[in-house]
Automatic annotation (TrEMBL):
Name of the molecule in the record: ABC transporter substrate-binding protein
PANTHER family: ARABINOSE-BINDING PROTEIN-RELATED
Coiled-coil spans in chain: none
Organism of this sequence: Candidatus Ryanbacteria bacterium RIFCSPHIGHO2_01_FULL_48_27
InterPro entries in the record: Bact_solute-bd_prot1 (IPR050490), SBP (IPR006059)
A Pfam family hit: SBP_bac_8
Keyword set, alphabetical order: Membrane, Transmembrane, Transmembrane helix
Transmembrane regions: 7-27
Length: 434
């Protein structure tokens, strides 16, 4: 009898021990979490691999937090998010581009100043991101990464033409494009010197034209006042010039058959594909295209450099796109969500994500690194130099720029095309802020 009691006693202790170990996650149980009291969900479109390490590290630091990342299809993401938030089934946190800020401002919980002040925000993150996610003296999102425009060039083609270095100015870019262009005996372009000039097969056309406009001293929409300035000129040596008109003329000349600079037409695929297939010697595109090129042609001798500038320019200006992470106004765990986002964009978290995506981090302390390989060095440098403009609707404005560019190729004057684009962008802003 005594032996039976001892056995029962030992068995009871063993069972209790097993239950405790399961509860604390030491051994797996049937869906029982290891002390998790707060569950957070994050929606976005970047790779889950990029976030896995950071989420794991944070949950190790705070075992009361459980975080789930849900990767969404970029094509349907915004509508799914809107529907989910409207039905009360939305995530606690979500990623968004700058153009979503005004569109979904009412769905956002602003970051509490006790977690980060205005000064901390502006001093921590690069200018291209702070312009995007700091509105009305409030932090609406913390930036996750920066994807700057860079110049891709084929090193073998350059060597073949005895061109030692990539172009630093747009005049050099034009000259090198002409030297690198190859035509058949029938004058058909078989290799483009530079993927420039159209919109139908150049997704970044809007960004390239707006970049050249900014470099020329112009702007598209004022970041603070949201006033459309695309059609405005400026005085240069007592002459009024329109930087947007100069940019538009320069860009479209690469697609005009009557011009010596003619090197691009609708027979080519998009710049990434054309470059990877060695059908184009240069193109201006986002740094994120590097991995796409490598997947198509792993043996290509790729050069990556900062985008060209105007000669004797007082400022070196680039352009970039970025993604921020914000908290849903409907979340029941707003403070916990913002605390995680702050960790996500901390030095450790931001570095891990940027390295996983092969993009530039959003933090100034990380962008200040100089002991980098050649490609990351260019990407980081370009991210710091990037300027942006207030874009009320990325897709709609891209179509407006496409109409502006294509219309000049079919006879519309530059001034008329720019004036029409100016009005249409202004209408976008009015519709967003009636």
């Amino acid at each position: 009898m005594q032996k039976l009691q001892i056995a029962i006693y030992i068995g009871t202790i063993f069972i209790v021990l097993i239950i405790i170990l399961i509860f604390w996650g030491v051994i797996p149980g049937l869906g029982v979490s290891r002390g998790v009291t707060t569950r957070l969900t994050l929606w976005g479109t970047i790779s889950d691999v990029a976030l896995k390490e950071v989420i794991h590290d944070y949950q190790t630091l705070d075992k009361s937090i459980g975080i789930t990342y849900v990767k969404k299809d970029p094509d349907t993401y915004e509508q799914q998010l809107v529907d989910a938030l409207a039905s009360g089934q939305g995530p606690d946190m979500w990623m968004m581009p700058p153009s979503w800020v005004d569109r979904h401002y009412g769905k956002i919980s602003l970051m509490p100043t006790v977690l980060m002040t205005e000064r901390e925000f502006l001093e921590t993150y690069a200018g291209a991101t702070t312009d995007a996610f700091f509105q009305s003296q409030k932090i609406v999102a913390l930036p996750l990464y920066i994807d700057p425009l860079v110049l891709f060039w084929n090193k073998d083609f350059f060597a073949s033409e005895a061109i030692a270095l990539p172009p630093k100015t747009w005049n050099e870019f034009l000259d090198m494009s002409e030297r690198l262009t190859r035509r058949s005996s029938e004058e058909t372009i078989i290799r483009s010197g530079a993927a420039m000039g159209l919109t139908s097969n150049i997704p970044e056309a809007k960004d390239i034209v707006s970049l050249i406009t900014l470099q020329g001293g112009g702007s598209v929409v004022d970041q603070k006042t949201h006033r459309v300035t695309l059609g405005e000129g400026r005085l240069v040596n007592d002459l009024k010039v329109n930087p947007a008109e100069s940019a538009l003329r320069f860009y479209t000349d690469f697609a005009r058959r009557s011009k010596k600079s003619y090197t691009w037409n609708n027979t080519f695929p998009d710049p990434v594909t054309a470059f990877a297939r060695e059908q184009a010697a240069m193109f201006v595109g986002y740094a994120s295209n590097y991995d796409k090129i490598r997947k198509i042609n792993s043996h290509l001798n790729i050069g990556v450099s900062p985008v060209p500038q105007f000669e004797n320019s007082a400022l070196i200006i680039g352009h970039a796109r970025t993604i921020g992470v914000t908290v849903a106004n409907a979340s029941r765990n707003k403070t916990a969500a913002w605390q995680f986002i702050k960790y996500l964009t901390s030095t450790k978290g931001n570095k891990a994500i940027a390295q996983s995506l092969n993009l530039a981090p959003s933090r100034r302390d990380l962008l200040a690194q100089r002991d980098l390989d050649p490609v990351p060095s260019v990407v980081y440098e370009s991210a710091l130099r990037a300027k942006t403009w207030y874009d009320p609707n990325e897709m709609a404005s891209a179509q407006i720029f496409a109409n502006m560019i294509e219309s000049t190729l079919t006879g519309t004057t530059f001034s008329t095309a720019i004036s029409e684009a100016d009005k249409r962008i202004n209408n976008l802003i009015i519709r967003k802020n009636p």
